Amino acid sequence: MKGLLVYEQFEKSLKWLSSMLPIKRIYDFCILRYLIDYENISFEQAKDEIMKWVNDVDDDSVYHSMEFLNQDYFDSGQKSRIPALCEYRRGKLYRTSVLNELLRNPRHKEMIEDVLEYGLFRYDREFGESYFGLPHFKLYEQYQMMDSALLSNYRKSHSAFRGSGLLANGNDYFLFVDLHKEADIDERLNYNDKIIDRNSFQWESQNNTTQHSERGKNIIFNQERGINLHLFVRKYREIEKSNIEPFIYLGKVNTRSFKGERPIEVQFDLEHTIPQQLYIELTEKV
User: Fold this and answer.
1) If you classify domain 2-127 with CATH, what class do you get?
2) CB neighbours of 216 closer than 8 A, spacing ≥ 6?
3) Where is the DUF8090 domain (predicted)?
């Protein structure tokens, strides 16, 4: 019976680690790889391990990574599905009894190491030592909504980051746009969002956002108010049924002009020109 329980924990752990591939930030896998060989890791050791792979990391992201591995931002469903591999106490992140048990089996240890090292080396090959700041987005890479919670050091349940086309964490606003709406979409959700050209984008707010609301003013006066607007787009929500497409990060945008009320129609300037090939892929109808 114990053997079956250990195998179930291994299967769930491997599934969770594999679900993070390709990894969106390197910090979590750096810390986990260290804990394969050592019983615990301090903040200073965690930062040192991360700095072996990248040329900079902010302290808050190191702390957030340790908190994330402690399952601080998991909802109850995630906690029931994902074994706790780490436990934070007395200023250090420790291996749990679950992880200790898994590492006693040479085959389990080898397979966990393989996933971690694959994630680390693939990240290194694609992004090198570059520091991407906070939020930790890379231009033209693919993301799901919930990734923006992890990559902006959101300190509430990450599963809450979904459903709405506009999410926020402090002064960072994340705009998620489906460029081609489904034929049967509810009219109140059928926003007139579109790429105008390689440097401009049109976006419509939700109907409950007015020019005089705090959220409305933060969007239309984003630069004056110190609000960072991050734009994510995808051509279609899904290509095949039940196969949800990821979004592509087009970088930060700034409001050039606006009009209307409920919804507000906003014209954005992109800080980065969309590459020609990506622009064609996103705008050409198939």
Assistant:
1) mainly alpha
2) 205, 209, 210, 264
3) 11-123
